[in-house]
Specification:
Structural class: alpha/beta
Shape: globular
Bound molecules: aspartic acid
Number of helices: 15
Oligomer: single chain
Helix content: 25-40%
């Protein structure tokens, strides 16, 4: 049995819902279907989830919110009408939104509950449509599916005991349609995963039902070796290991949520990234192990928006506990960090911009200066990270040489280099304005024969 998850672009309008239904119908193994909220229909359009967030924020602030409500219900109305479904479904969705907005619950719970309505409505519509064309299908709410979570700051986290309950879904007849992106706490409160979290739901269901394959349908034919917005038609990746995907999705490869790998890895369920608009394309398989190829590098990921916190102190290497105390300051200020390349007397802590607003920056700079007495403490902004990724790098001589030559030829100055101990990736930190040049040059060096 397979789990198929369809992303927002796959459900953006009625035509997309029909494509999804064709895909489900074409393979009897596709039994568990997980859906996102309708996404953008074109470049200037809005994702329903973003509109729902704007709606609830406006409502909570007592701002004008009606226009959001109209836009959202119109989106669903058009889909439901175009699919010739019972208009009662529109009334049901509208009532759900209004009842949730007006309910006497905390703002946090209200935000979560409204955010989830996009996925919930997609699942209601898809199951109704499947039934209307003769495919027996059932909508199953995440609470009934057994998705029990803890509601944490960075997004909900699944609780282990969920998986046995989810397994009961295998006893159900017909196609099971489950909304992605949310679960329920033990107390019965709705909690959402982090953004893009329907991928996580899909992986949780795949784990719970012991799926043979987790198919993740999106709007690209495969995972590409570099960002296609930087290099035209880059090479497609046919197979990736879980670890390679983890490294790539960390730095800008947004086709698959990095947290979604965990439940899949646990049961070693292969994941296939496929295109709803071109389902016959083979897609990219993500597996535990793959055969060795002559290619040591599978992809080059990159992302902007990083900050480097540079701290230096003469004889730092002899000062026991220095780095621990530095990291403790970050921990106490609730700042997570990405990498920490170091020298004998200095260390750079790489932090994502979103972690460090002006106020937090002021606090940590002060604390580091007074508590650690460093010689230098500085913040560098506008940093881009490039990850050169491939399991084969470990056994290949000259990968770093090829990468640094390519970066040199592109006239890109390296701010830092870091190779993770796993040797699955090599990281380069550069100024953001050189990123496109750098990626093009790396692509030519690693992928163009
Ligand atoms: N709709 C949610 C989001 O936009 C979750 C998802 O699409 O996976 O983040």
């Amino acid at each position: 049995m397979k789990v198929a998850k369809f992303g927002g672009s796959s459900l953006a309008n009625a035509t997309q819902f029909q494509k999804v239904s064709d895909i489900i119908q074409s393979d009897k193994e596709r039994k568990f279907i997980v859906v996102s909220a309708p996404g953008k229909r074109h470049g200037e359009d809005f994702k329903v989830t973003d509109l729902l967030i704007q709606l609830v924020e406006a409502y909570i602030k007592n701002d004008k919110y009606k226009s959001y409500l109209i836009t959202i219900t119109d989106r669903f109305k058009t889909i439901i009408n175009d699919l010739n479904l019972d208009p009662k479904l529109i009334t049901e969705i509208e009532k759900n939104i209004i009842d949730t907005l007006e309910s006497d619950i905390s703002d946090h719970l209200k935000l979560n509950s409204i955010k989830a309505i996009g996925e919930d409505s997609s699942a209601l519509i898809l199951s109704a449509y499947l039934n209307s064309i003769g495919i027996p299908a059932k909508y199953v709410n995440p609470k009934d599916a057994g998705i029990i979570v803890e509601d944490l700051d960075g997004g909900a986290q699944i609780i282990d005991e969920s998986f046995d309950i989810i397994n009961q879904l295998t006893l159900e007849e017909g196609v099971i349609v489950i909304p992605g992106f949310f679960g329920y706490t033990k107390e019965g409160n709705l909690a959402t995963f982090s953004r893009g979290g329907s991928d996580i739901t899909g992986a949780i269901i795949a784990n719970g039902v012991n799926a043979t394959l987790y198919e993740n349908f999106t709007d690209v034919d495969s995972v590409y070796s570099v960002n296609p917005n930087i290099v035209d038609s880059p090479k497609e990746i046919t197979t990736l290991t879980y670890r390679e995907m983890r490294e790539l999705s960390y730095a800008g490869f947004s086709v698959f949520h990095d947290e979604a790998l965990i439940p899949a890895v646990e049961k070693q369920i292969p994941v296939c990234i496929k295109n709803t608009n071109n389902p016959s394309a083979p897609g990219t398989m993500i597996v535990a192990n793959k055969e060795k190829t002559h290619k040591s590098v599978v992809g080059v990921a990159s992302d902007t928006g990083f900050i480097s916190l540079y701290v230096s102190k003469f004889l730092m290497n002899r000062e026991i506990g220095f780095v621990r105390r530095l990291l403790q300051i970050l921990e106490e200020e609730c700042i997570s960090f990405e990498h920490a390349p170091s020298g004998i007397d200095d260390i750079s802590i790489i932090i994502h911009e979103k972690e460090l607003d002006d106020n937090k920056e002021f606090i940590i700079m002060n604390r580091i200066s007074t508590e650690l007495q460093p010689d230098v403490v500085r913040i560098h902004r506008d940093l881009a990270l490039i990850m050169v990724v491939g399991e084969g790098m470990k056994e290949t001589i000259g990968v770093a040489q090829t990468a640094t030559r390519a970066l040199g030829e592109a006239q890109v100055n390296l701010e830092m280099i870091n190779q993770g101990s796993s040797e699955v990736s090599m990281m380069f930190g550069i100024k953001s304005n050189g990123l496109h040049r750098a990626i093009k040059s790396l692509y030519n060096a690693f992928f163009v024969d």
